[in-house]
Design goal:
Layout lengths: L13 H6 L1 E3 L5 E4 L20 E3 L20 E3 L20 E3 L22 E3 L20 E3 L10 H4 L6 E3 L34 H19 L16 H4 L4 H6 L1
Parallel strand pairs: 2-3, 3-4, 4-5, 5-6, 6-7, 7-8
Antiparallel strand pairs: 1-2
Length: 256
């Protein structure tokens, strides 16, 4: 592979993209391109920029271009489980966003643009499982935030402006080297992480992942509770197996 070039990934055509538009339970149109092996943001989806929800999670994206600003109707954007180390400044133009999932990427503190604070309608922001060492105090301007995920980073301090957000109901800072949790006795984690697999608690999952996992779990429970039907194997009760009479006629068996 040439130096400086990552995997090419799967090429998404406009036809494939159009066939990937779904109507979500809330009536919004969702362009679902998750788990498609995409390594480069597909420019063809600009023709579908009027969708309200965009799912590009579980791909190999290393960069989100500034043309994301074309998606002005977006209220829901899922980019979790990619290879992103920074966000474009244009992210701040998506003023209608209420949900932004950036979990399980390679985002650094320097990779968070100041324009992120322009998302004044944001209710849920997930920055868990990244490479953050600090959190900008300016995130305290996102006064509509209800949930903020910061788990599994390298944070040693949570700004007061973030802790005191007026509508914040859930702040997940688990598994960070925060001094206030240093004296707590936490169980030793004997599970080793590998590059692309993470074991997280149920409460750390995003809503879409949790819904999918619960659905699969329910299907397994259905299979477990099914009563086995009658066996289709033929039965021959009148036949005698050789071993049942071998002790009585061993000599005869040997001769034959």
């Amino acid at each position: 592979m040439p130096k400086g070039k990552g995997p090419q990934g799967k090429r998404i055509t406009l036809k494939v993209a159009k066939n990937s538009v779904r109507v979500a339970f809330n009536g919004r149109r969702r362009l679902d391109l998750s788990k498609m092996g995409i390594a480069t943001f597909p420019k063809c989806i600009l023709d579908l920029a009027d969708v309200e929800e965009l799912d590009l999670s579980r791909n190999m994206l290393r960069k989100i271009p500034n043309i994301i600003e074309k998606f002005q109707n977006l209220m829901w954007l899922d980019l979790h489980s990619n290879q992103l180390d920074e966000l474009p400044a244009a992210i701040g133009t998506l003023k209608n966003l209420t949900y932004l999932n950036l979990c399980n990427n390679k985002l650094t503190t320097q990779g968070l643009p100041e324009e992120l604070t322009l998302l004044k309608n944001l209710h849920i922001l997930n920055l868990g499982l990244n490479c953050l060492e600090t959190i900008p105090t300016t995130l305290g301007t996102l006064r509509e935030l209800i949930e903020l995920g910061l788990f599994d980073n390298s944070l040693t301090l949570i700004p007061k402006s973030v802790k005191k957000l007026p509508k914040l109901e859930r702040l997940n800072v688990k598994r960070n080297p925060l001094p206030e949790f240093a004296e707590e006795d936490e169980p030793i984690d004997t599970i080793k992480r590998i590059e692309s697999l993470y074991l997280v608690e149920k409460n750390d999952l995003c809503s879409s992942c949790l819904e999918m996992c619960q659905g699969e779990r329910d299907e397994l429970h259905k299979l477990e509770n099914m009563t086995p039907g009658p066996s289709n194997k033929p039965s021959f009760p009148s036949l005698t197996t050789p071993n049942s009479t071998a002790m009585d006629n061993q000599e005869e068996w040997r001769i034959k």
